[in-house]
Every structure is written in C-alpha cells, then in structure tokens.
Sequence to fold (203 residues):
Amino acid sequence: MDFSEWKYLICSDLYRITGQINWMILVRHVLFGESYKYIFWMRTCAYTKSHAIFRYVIYPFAKLYLRRLRYKLGISIPPETQIGSGFYIGHFGGIVVNERCIIGKNCNLSHGVTLGQVNRGPRKGCPIIGDNVYIGPGAKIIGAVRVGNNVAIGANCVVTKDVPDNAVVVGVPGKIISFRGSQGYVNRTEYDMELSKRLRHAA
Fold:
C-alpha cells in the first residue's frame, strides 16, 4: 500500500460516516470518534507495516494503539484483512473478523457481527464479501462463503451458504426472502465524485 492508496481509503471511510471530506473532520473523528478511530488506525497499521522506514518508527506505535482500541471498543479486525474502500462500522462492540476474510468496497458492519473461519469440511476457509453489502447486528457469516454484491443480511442471521447478488437474507440458517438488495442501507458511496471535485479545486 502506498501513501495515495492509504489517503484514498481513509477519506472514503470518512465520507461514508460524515458525507464530507476535510482534514478538520478527519482529525475530530480520529481524536474523538469511535468506530472510525479504529478503522483509521487499522488502515494506518497496514500502510506503515509495508514501508521500510515507517515499519520501525510508526508501525509499532500504531499496532500498540490499535490493540488498545480492540479491547476498548470490542472490535477485532486485523490490519492484514483485505478490505475495500468506504468501510463503515455503524456501532462498535462484539465485532470479530478473521484476517483471511476478503471484504469488498462499501461494506456496512453492525455490532455483534462475526466473519469467521471453518477449519474442516466442504466450507473450510473464510468468507468473501462483495461490494455494497449490509451486515446487520449479530449476524454471523461462517466458512468459505461467497456473499454477492448489493446484499443485505438481517439481524442475527447465520449464513453458511453462498448468497447471490441483490439478495436479502434473514433467519437461522439464513434464507433468501427477496432480491431488493441493500439499497437504502448502504449510503454515501459517491466519495469518488467528491474526491475528484476536491482535486480539481486544488489544481
């Protein structure tokens, strides 16, 4: 990860929460925020670990601080996890994501969500989550499950099978009840337009 990618990721994450991108809002959320503070330091750990100089200067501090936030906020998402832009955590607490999971862009995680690994059987592995996916409070996605794009997963749902694009899944085990997708649940995804506008003004 280079600096421009890191900057793009933290700005896209911020926009998903605030609908704005500026340094004053960024500083306020890093200092006094909750979920965004964790996301920021998670991204920063991934960035600084990949650079020779930062790896020995900034990364140890960032990793230590992220560990503190893990216990304070109840969020356990390793910085090694592959997560796309526009990552959003609605409420902190009880969130566990295996580092081998792959999460697409504009994913919404709610409190109590687990994306976990299965160690044996036909679903051995970790989930792969598509773009624009909403995962409701208490939901569990376990094993080598592929969740398509624009999917909404309901509260306390347990997903152990693949989910097609635009599906709405509820229940234990998860069942598809419609194909209305995640529209209305995943918002503020137009950050590319906002970032382009800011670059034009800066030029």
About this structure: The CA atoms of residues 50 and 194 lie 28 Å apart. The helical segments are 3-18, 23-32, 35-49, 54-57, 59-73, 191-202. The chain has six helices and 15 strands. The two ends are 24 Å apart (CA to CA).
